[in-house]
Structure prediction request, 735 residues.
Amino acid sequence: MTNIQEIGSAKDLMHSVRKYLPAGRASLVEDSLKYAINAHSGQERDSGEPFVVHPIATAIRLADMRLDSTTIQAALLHDVIEDCSISFDELESEFGTDVAKLVDGVTKLKRLDMISENSAMVKQIATPEATRAASLRKMLVAMAEDVRVVLIKLSDRLHNMQTLEHLPVPKQQRISRETLDIYSPLAHRLGMYDIKWQLEDQAFRYLMPRQYKSISRLVSRKRAEREIYTEAATKAIKGPLDKAGIKCNVDGRVKHLYSTYIKLQRYERMGRKFDEIYDLIAIRVVTDDLADCYAALGVVHSKWRPVPGQFDDYIASPKENMYQSLHTSVRGPGNYPIEVQIRTQEMHETAEEGVASHWMYKEGEDGAPKIDNFETKMSWLRQLLDWQRELSGDEEYLATVRTDILQDQVFVYTPQGDVKDLPAGATPIDFAYRIHTDLGHNTVGAVVNGKLMALNTPLNNGDVVEIRKARIPRGPSLDWLNSDLGYIITGSAQTKVKQWFRKQERQSNVRRGKDLLKKELRRLGIRYNEKEIVASLDYDSFDDLTEALGVGQISVARVADTLSPAPSEVFTRELETGKLPTDQTKGLIVMGEPGLLTRIARCCSPVYGDEITGYLTRGSGVTVHRHNCPILRDTKDSERHTPVAWGHYETTYVSRLQIKAFDRVGLIRDITNVVSSENVNIHSLTSDEDDKTNACTVSLTVYTTGVEQLSRLFSRVEAIPGVDTVLRVSEAKGV
Prediction:
């Protein structure tokens, strides 16, 4: 048996919990610590240190946040079910139901026999990706029932990220991506900014090591200058605050590496350099009471000139994660912009620890946490339980959580004054589905702030939205599922639209899907074989595939990508680094014939993503054609055909489009505006009009990154009023 005194971190934990827990509660933590040490005896981490160091580190982080004894116990035991073959019943018998439930909530799914054989999840759980999705779903549902589950998981993930260097690179990147996609946004939604920035910086380090080192060097180079500036600004404002009799602490802080990287990316798009970024510095004023916050704001604005339109009162209108503070941007010393945050000490604790701060100092002698109005403050957690009942697929559930919960939120109002929170970019249709499914299905119009608006208009904070409903039930439009048109962004609304279409007659869905597929492949110039499509997408029949297309379960863009693959087996590490190819032939790989010259055939103009074949020409190397190019197919020297594939990098490829439309004033302007908004360059444009029929044909030559962008461009152009069809055309020339 390993003694607690032999593990330094164990002593640190007990020292920490005894500072704030009653003796009886601290004793329970010590019992759990001994149990964890014995359960993990002989186990080692990839670093070679005893495994029990990890659960102890997880518990120390939570003890530093002064969480209740039940949470600390569960943190110490969070891996015993998963790694020590200890059952839930054993844990419940030893430590009680609350501790056992928290441990079970954090425990990952590892085996198929953990799920009922009759469950719809059995088939999808067979892959590692599906297993991870199921585990995340299990944790999120458990979190909705007891938020302490996610507090333990975030602390667990943070320690794993801090010791990630001992794992293989692919695993480092997978865990880091999951951290950036799920755990960091979750910490943000819970208001736990201290953990959020640490998770982001660690994930940034492994996902983008080159950019991480670059930002680190930039920040280091500017550190001395920033520290001098911050100290001067802090002193400049502390004096007037003291003179006004406001008791407060003033300090400066610098944005962390990942947030600096994001800001730098935004500044580069604006044409600004790192040396011009002075608002990476924020000054924080922490006062004793609420009244002093607004008094301090007056002092700051009298000392420094405020930047117009850069003031937010999150005290009067707290964020959904309970964050409260006054934010203002001012012109500080040297006329440089500084962000100033003003809040009370209690608000500051909430800003750093978020929901966890509502568990601090709250435990009574009975061990029951006392949380004021917690249910109303975290009402979004109930959505997790609602979706658990509505959504059968784990990956669909996880995608819905990502879009609807883990993105930035906007708050909009019903005409009656009820507040609804939606992800940023949500539309009136998303809003309608949040109110009621039937209202969403039959939405025909939306009045936003008293004005009739398009159904794909993004909503903003404070908008008042009134939905116009069809008098006769009509159901949703399939266009709402086209992400390129932007009608719906929430996963929950998308799911409800898909469910409506699934209930419609199968044959009508099959016909609709066939029409969509035929139209998409015709305009992309791709020929197809029904058996090949069915086999490549793993459907039992062509009707099953087209039904899935007809109800919006899969997109035509996915089918097009499958028919025009860019095989990953030919990617090489050399192609993943360095500069992008300057022309479209440099990314091509000629299989079995290294070093040959390549050129793109003008007859079919293949773009990145098309299935391609090479043709060996005398004295000119290899000419690359689309696989179904009629000229290539008609050549008699089949022995000259050679396999080629696209390299890793996308670049720009020429495509010729033909648009048939009703001629009207502003048509060309609308077309060019849509093409430009997709960041597609136009090389040439011609227009032929028929005076008798008032029809016209617009011919475009554009440069796109491949089939995916081309498909998106088609959808956008076809939505222009007056446009009938958009086709990709070839130029018939020799090989």
